[in-house]
Amino acid sequence: MGDSMTTSPRNGPGTGEVLLSVQGLVAGFDTDAGRVQAVDDLSFDIHRGEVFSVVGESGSGKSVTAMTIMGLLPTLKVSAGQILWHGRDLLDLPDEEMRAVRGNQIAMVFQDPLTAFNPVHTIGRQIGEAGRIHRGLSKKQARLEAIDKLGLVGIPEPHKRADMYPHEFSGGMRQRAKAAMAIMNDPDLLIADEPTTALDVTVQAQVLEVLVAIKDEIDSAIMLITHDLGVVAGLSDRVMVMYAGRQAELAGVNDLFYRTHHPYTLGLLASLPSLVGSDDEPLVPIPGSPPSLVHRPSGCPFHPRCASAEDPGRCASEVPQLRIVATDHLAACHFAEEVASGDRDPRTVDRGAEA
Amino acid sequence: MSAEPSSGAAGSPSDLRDFWRRFRANRLAVLGLAFMVALVVVAVLAPQIAPYGEAERSSVFRGPPSWDHPFGTDGIGRDVFSRVVLGSRVSLKIGALATAISLIIGVGFGGLAGFFGGWVDGLVMRITDIFLAIPYIVLAVAIASVFGRSQNAIIVVLGLTGWLAIARIVRSSFLSLKELEYVEAARALGFSNSRIMFKHILPNALQPIIVYGTIAVGVTILSEAALSFLGVGPQDPTPAWGLMIADGKGSLSNAPHLVLFPGLAISLTILSLQMIGDGLRDALDPKLR
Fold this sequence. Notes:
Helix content of chain A: 25-40%
Number of domains of chain A: 1
Strand order of the largest sheet of chain A: 6-7-8-3-9-10-12-11
Distance between the termini of chain A: 58 Å
Shape of chain B: globular
Number of helices of chain B: 13
CATH class of chain B: Mainly Alpha
Structural class of chain A: alpha/beta
CATH architecture of chain B: Orthogonal Bundle
CATH topology of chain A: Rossmann fold
Distance between the termini of chain B: 8 Å
Oligomer: heterodimer
Radius of gyration of chain B: 22 Å
CATH architecture of chain A: 3-Layer(aba) Sandwich
């Protein structure tokens, strides 16, 4: 079951059974300063077997999206939209049924492995606990399975490690143990919220490889939240770029990198250090900073920072809708086609202004 | 000495050894612990140690300390040493049970307030404000007039009035601990609120509870003595230390031993518990490692 529901035409490419379908999600927080629209009109599907990456700057709504799917933000007000999981709207589920989904069908790997384990319990017990709660395993069974999972994520001597405490683990081992905890119940969807940000570069790669290997092993899907485009390029099947709580672009990873249709994505790519270019080639930052989510800019939220925006003009007055710009390729830019063809490359515009 | 981040509470055996090494460094705390261990032994073996029964009378009234009566005799000829020894049972029982009640109520209310916040927090904190506004002596007199004067009544009184500080301590611990990522992770694993509260947060909040609980036993014993002194506590012939001081206060000038020995027993017990509490705090505080 699962792929029987109607999906909007804005979901972009992807193959395999649709596991999760977010449709028209609008959500925000009420603060003293006003409503913070953290997520605005978000729609996407995640299919079994894929790595779906969500990219964006801090405050672009990546984590809020993940936490909303998990139902972990009690102060968040959802004003529109659905989060369909196997055809059921997670937003409507009673607490108890939502708890049965969390950690069982959808699991999450958090950002900081150093604080993600409870210091007073052994690693094995904490990993096994999810199995005891959701599948009623005995303590002994849970421990054995926890040892299995620790082995699966590449921790040496898992039977010894299971009885150790979190402070006896290194950061990389803890993050792997965290992954073991998330896969304890073979979830269909693994949400990884910047799982490698706190780790050494060398360990990052190992942890990510482990996550993908696990995904293939248990035939699930990964929603990978990151601001690291290098990570995205290496692992993802599809990428969603977010800006100010809205989707900027959604495409297969190659299409996104080589047939970019949104100036913001171009800006992100330009700010990436390259190993092949000449040494003195400067990094090109995106000027300005992300907009306030309380007082959004008029029109396209990116237009104040966009080198190729028409201001005054369409970009400043009309919010661009996410639309199909090429096969399996969605972008929210009035001039997506021109951006893709290079006529409106902000880098060339930028350099022209400097010269 | 260790570079690794300190784990929250004592868990593995090496943590326990580490803890004892640090506790031992505080001489006064060790002294207090020794006194309390001795007091507990005395309380357990009290009927064997006491040469006379609690209501057994001799012909010597208000007799000074002697070989037959090391702490002297009281106004109706009872042996003060026996009564102080037997009284240790009363004090320790009241201190321990009343503190246990306070801990259960305080941890429960404080935990709920800190974990759920919002209106639950507001309600619990207003309840503690109301209790703080009523002097426990007034409450004690009121409850004693309902339940009568007995050990059980005083346990209930002290238990019902002693939980306020514990609730506040637990609340503040829960408020900060619930923001930690492992609590979020426990939620993400679909654990129930009660499981998160008791299995994941409470073990990390134990340190201040242990320290305060130790000191609270002393405070409770002192309160019991005060209430007994006022005549609201256990009744004669129960050998409560506070009651013995109350009985002896009239003859302070000619028979000071009637007040001195039970008074010393109360002071030393409370001092010991305070010193143990101090030692525990220093030994458990990760910042002082």
